What does this fold into?
Amino acid sequence: RKEVEQDPGPFNVPEGATVAFNCTYSNSASQSFFWYRQDCRKEPKLLMSVYSSGNEDGRFTAQLNRASQYISLLIRDSKLSDSATYLCVVGLSNDYKLSFGAGTTVTVRA
Amino acid sequence: EPEVTQTPSHQVTQMGQEVILRCVPISNHLYFYWYRQILGQKVEFLVSFYNNEISEKSEIFDDQFSVERPDGSNFTLKIRSTKLEDSAMYFCASGGRATGELFFGEGSRLTVL
It folds into this structure.
């Protein structure tokens, strides 16, 4: 089983729509959770950390469900500039690496 | 804003040649990483480096790979004898703490012919 699994998409949504997608992780001991964004042929950049109680950053909301071992990202009021690949990233507390999912591609159309 | 810088941005090499990719991490960071991404595939962990030694490495990071922090600022990845399947984008990253936020460089694209 893969360490981090994501629906690859693509999710094609109109501007202003809400889009949400999940990620599952295999190791129940995972302690760190992030969403990164990667534009085509660019480096990954941190979008937001994911906290146990769930957290929001502007139009982005992240949730963590430890019991079911999944993380979600919701984007409200989608903008054209939200078009990117969203990477789910998970780490262990006693580990020196982060594991990346393959990414979920979102395309926002005018 | 501090950033991770990588050189070269693109290198083309012949199979069997040695390649050195260079990175300057953010200056007050303590954790350094190399990741790679084969075109169209996911970002894969190669190696992490902390306290002047490798802290963890993946199965990809075999004897052909090595890392060094020669002078306290640069962080290098060496591939001793490149293979066709080493063609990928290599990302250097640094972080202030283990498994915290990583800051990535723009990547070095390696093409092995």
